[in-house]
Amino acid sequence: MSAEPFVVVGGDAAGLSAASKFARADTDRDVVVFEKGRWVSYAHCGTPYFVKGEVEKLTDMLSLSPEAAADRGIDLRREHEVVAVDTDERVVTVAGPDGTFEQPYGDLLIATGARALREPIDGIDLDGAFTLHGLDDAAAIRSFLTDPVEASVADLGGGGFVDEARAARFGAMEPPESVAIVGGGFVGVEMAEAFTAHGLDVHLFQRSGHVLGSFGDAVGERVEEHLEAHGVTLHLGASVERLRGDDAGRVEAVVCEGDELAVDAAMVGIGLRPNSDLVADAVDLGETGAIAVDDYGRTSAERVYAAGDCAEIDHVVTGEPTWNTLGLPANRAGRAIGQTVAGDPEPIGTVANTSVVKAFDLECGRAGVTDLDEARDAGFDPVSETITAGSRSGYYPGSAETTVTLVADRDTGRLLGGTIVGADRAAVRIDTVATALASELTVAEVERLDLGYAPPFSPVWDPILTAAKVLRGSL
Amino acid sequence: MSAEPFVVVGGDAAGLSAASKFARADTDRDVVVFEKGRWVSYAHCGTPYFVKGEVEKLTDMLSLSPEAAADRGIDLRREHEVVAVDTDERVVTVAGPDGTFEQPYGDLLIATGARALREPIDGIDLDGAFTLHGLDDAAAIRSFLTDPVEASVADLGGGGFVDEARAARFGAMEPPESVAIVGGGFVGVEMAEAFTAHGLDVHLFQRSGHVLGSFGDAVGERVEEHLEAHGVTLHLGASVERLRGDDAGRVEAVVCEGDELAVDAAMVGIGLRPNSDLVADAVDLGETGAIAVDDYGRTSAERVYAAGDCAEIDHVVTGEPTWNTLGLPANRAGRAIGQTVAGDPEPIGTVANTSVVKAFDLECGRAGVTDLDEARDAGFDPVSETITAGSRSGYYPGSAETTVTLVADRDTGRLLGGTIVGADRAAVRIDTVATALASELTVAEVERLDLGYAPPFSPVWDPILTAAKVLRGSL
User: Fold this and answer.
1) Predicted ipTM?
2) Are strands B362-368 and B355-359 parallel, antiparallel or unpaired?
3) Chain B residues whose beta carbon lies within 8 Å of the beta carbon of residue A45
4) Domain Pyridine nucleotide-disulphide oxidoreductase dimerisation spans what residues (chains A, B) (predicted)?
């Protein structure tokens, strides 16, 4: 085993999970984590709720403080950017506050994450236009939404990490009364709720026909009704070209297919891109643009691993690499790689691209392959059924309409994926689908699952069982 | 195929599911259902909530009315009791309002259900002492809890089926101010909530050390704390010998290990017994006392099936017959038998003995083999771990402590069972365990499941994943 340290590039979910697991294994090697920013190990997923005001302090969203990382024996260097990787010499070049230096590695983990897409929206650099990727963005947006009289950087709970100048600048501005959200994905839907809570007139622009595209039409349609019921104005099938600013360089309007709508702010959530540029010449990238890895997170370069939002991971249904930017797979892959590098090989696992999201009071979930074209591309002959059933026994108060779509392969009967939407415990029910996918269950096997039943929690036939029953009838 | 009808004995979940499925198959044979009572196809599980007052009418709990059954082509005969079965001659003897007659059958389904155990509690026939098994019991108890001035049989919503004389008699009595619940199982825990809602002083007596025994100690302990926090007085490890009545024959005290406690009412929920006596000489019974069946619900007698609370069903973990009295397996087995009898054989499936129950605001779930002795008896070398984790991201409001116990086999790593308790979406999470059990997943495979994560619904590592991680470390 090399005496050179385990070097980790990126101090968020995957990177610090790997470093923590490695440090706990108590080898005689050091682990060094280089993080280009000031924040480490923070919960991206919490940022809309910080903006909304349900999460009080930025530091509440840290799952590991720099001090706790040090206590675990991790040599954590914040504001240190790795600017070059030499896989032949096994050395990385690091730009830090005190200059640039070279750091040799025994093993290397690339955990550089992803970035919010800003193209092709022209005007995204105007004041009042934001993407949401990180706590500094969240701090700036919440400051912007707060009355200047009340806005205080200290109230953000930034713990010394936050970009105070940026927060203060937006805190001093007159708060917006209206906002254009560009993109109806996770960020768009969650931020619609956050902006509504602040009393803004919210316009959501979605290029395709439905919001939450990865959740399919049945979920999208119910979420749209629900967003409208909460006062959000939807612009579906509407391609935003640019944001227009006033003379002071502040957002004044959104321009969509030639028409202008006056707004005071804009939130752009049109997707992410993997931060794979750093190693694009050093390791193989996959078709997704993220770093290709094997079952243990190893890249094409010896002793170089990749995990989290910059890397691929295999899909449990298709067996093909997919690009997943969610928290659990990043944590799990990082943890597995830390264990592998420490000498006890552990596979990074697979994903069903399971995801859940809250849209005001609606809970949405999806797992597996639910798009029929995608299923065909993967070699399946997909059949899909959608049902709506109560979330509880019909006679028990609080039963909520729950819509489930399941997709299966006609030839084998194998379940390929599913989506769910409803106001009562809908999201966690997708875990049944995710578990069935990991086990390669057929629809008939899903129909016969012995799921829990009691009037306050489920009808006799859980909505997922009802969907399986109906889908089986169509196979 | 015989031209004689498909005869079903018992018009509840299993019986009417079978009859409905058979009738839909549109064969040229009739289906006749004999039900000894007036109620058919009603939701046992809803009765505590009817007593509590959350369910308004008795008829709300009917999943199929007699009229709807007739519309489906089912020849439903209520108040017809099958008193003898002759499997050689293929004929049943039926006692109905117009006398006794013989009914030949082509195929026969025994779906006679279960009954509430009344032994060995002496005094259970006193006024004010109840078991809860059926809508007439529920009607009597709710009437008893209602002030005589307000009590009205019409308010029960009995739809012409209810035992009005019994309800009226209890409705005329002075309502109780205190109650002894004998038995801390489902009925005991759910009725504690119902009686508390009516303002009674509630004493719950449990013979063993913990309530909800089938859910294990970790759940039992949390439920006990919660019951006490809601004002229920617990008497654990306390064997009730008898109920003592006053001169008018009404419950006056509960006698427990020589001590008396004055109470005005008693609720006895000490278990069920299968109604297998009718065919005890005609078909083989299993070790559980319920009717033994094969994978298609066939008994040892030709063309005689059994399903629901009177029959056994195989356990997915042990592969051995078990006795399960819950709604979903009864519905599923009945439906499968209806299809099989109609000529399209369908297995009745297996059970994990999954169950969920609400105890005031706590949600409890269990699935599989969770008792270590039971696991050893089944040939496993069980290892168990219990963890407590938040139900949501720690920074998100409303996260509730969720306690998960998982049990696995040391040799194979296979998951054997699990329990869960918590106030926030705990119960439905047991479905992940139930699905994993059906798929014979190992603990390592459970740990790598791609379950949903978003701050309002789950921490990054769902409590079930955390439990799997910890248990895997102990294998």
Assistant:
1) 0.97
2) antiparallel
3) 393, 453-455
4) 357-459
